[in-house]
Amino acid sequence: MRAKITYAVTAAVLVVYFVLxxxxxxxxxxxxxxxxxTFGVAVLILPVIGLWFLxxxxxxxxxxxxxxxxxxxxxxxxxxxxxxxxxxxIDRDSADEVxxxxxxxxxxAPDDWRSWFRLAxxxxxxxxxxxxxxxxxRAIALHEGRPVQA
Length: 150
Prior knowledge:
The structure is a single chain. Helices cover 78% and strands 0% of the residues. By secondary structure, it is mainly alpha-helical. The mean pLDDT is 90.
């Protein structure tokens, strides 16, 4: 729940920031000189890109949470069996061991979104965020029945 609140507050702050930046861009355009219009258009592009990124990220999180809820209802969420250091960090060898099992599971069932979801969690636990995101995107695509890029 704390993560959801943090995400919502961050998103709200970003939207306010985008509105403020956008208003400055409009003010520059209203000035009417070639230079200020050019700068105004450039300034307006930034909030558009930011809003697009925020929208895509929010959709990704929403879909990943839906998969997690569905997998939880099926009793298929992975159990946290990772060893932790005294400071609470995940033990690297433990994460590698679980990752190897999840990767083998995914290789055995490459068209099953559930195995890709669990692999994404294993990547995340192994601190490989980029691959975790790609694995989750693949799980979402498989769940939605969309074609998956190799």
